[in-house]
Each structure stands twice: as structure tokens, then as C-alpha cells.
Amino acid sequence: MTVQTEPTERAPFAWKYNLLTVVAATTAAIAATTSASIGWPVWAMFMGWVAFFTRGHSASEALKSYTCLVVGIAIGMAAALALQALMPAMGALAFGPVVFIVAMIVVSLRALAPVNNVPAYFLGLITFFAAHLEPGWLAFCELAGVAALGCAAAWLAHRLQGAIAR
Questions:
Q1: Structural domain harbouring 136
Q2: Which of 58, 70, 166, 59 is nearest to 117 (CA)?
């Protein structure tokens, strides 16, 4: 039995596929290096990158996804403050009402078009809690800034790939 190969048809596909991959990887590497150079957590930059891909890929949709992520960060901070206030009296039981209220708010936001991107809200919550920062303006600005870098980098990579693919 002979295996048929079609190098003339597959080679352009492989070349373009690899170029698209290099563009995404290079953009991610530059964004990660920028984040680390500023002193921002690289993983948080990728939260913005992931948020970009939770919706459409236009600049407008990217901004909406980013807005949801940033609001999620703010909700996370409010939840942390609520936990700080309630835990002395309630201990671990404070998590129940705080998580319930946060989940009610976030899931209810699914009806608030155009910022109804529930996964991006949860990415914001995760970003805040994973950062282990004290709630405050500085923490908010740092996390919002690094997420903006990631979202912008993902948008740029997507645009560059689109130009190559044409």
C-alpha cells in the first residue's frame, strides 16, 4: 500500500499556519515581557488575553469584555471587604452569604446587554482573588492595567493574524 502525500497543497497551509502561530506566540511573549518588566504578574496579563476570546473579536467587543473583567475585579474587591467585615463574627460561614450575593449579581448581569459577558466577570473575580492583594485603588489599577495589556495584546495578535490570513 502506498501513502499518498500532497506536499504542494499542504506546504502553503503549513507555512501560513506556522506563521499565524508565530504571530500569536510573539505577541504573547512581548506582552509577557512587558508585564514582567513593569512588575505586573504575567499570569494576570493572560487573564485579559483570555477575556478577549470570551466574545467577538472586534475592538468594540474587546472593550466590552475588558469592561466586564474590570467590573469583576471591583466586585471581587467588594466581596473581600465584606468577608473582612463578616469573618470576625461568622468565621468561614461568612463565605456563604458573600458568595451567594456575588453570584446573584454576576449571573444577573447576563441580562445587561452589551456588558453581559458572565465569563469575563468571573475572570475578574478570579484575577482579584488569585492576586492575593489587599483591596484598594492601587490593587485595582494594577490588575486593571495588566488585564488591559493582555486584552490589547490578544486583540493585536488577532488583527495581525487576520491580515496574514487574507
A1: 12-165
A2: 70
| Residues whose CB falls within 8 Å of the CB of residue 128, separated by 6 or more in sequence, listed in order | 72, 73, 76, 77, 80, 135, 139, 143
Q: What is the CA radius of gyration of the chain?
A: 20
Residue 150 CA to residue 158 CA, distance in Å, equals 12
Residue 55 in domain: yes
pTM of the shown model: 0.88
pLDDT in tens, the chain (166 residues): 444 444 455 555 688 889 999 999 999 999 999 999 999 999 999 999 999 999 989 999 999 999 999 999 999 999 999 999 999 999 999 999 999 999 999 999 999 999 999 999 999 999 999 999 999 999 999 999 999 999 999 999 999 999 988 8
Structural domains in the chain (count) = 1
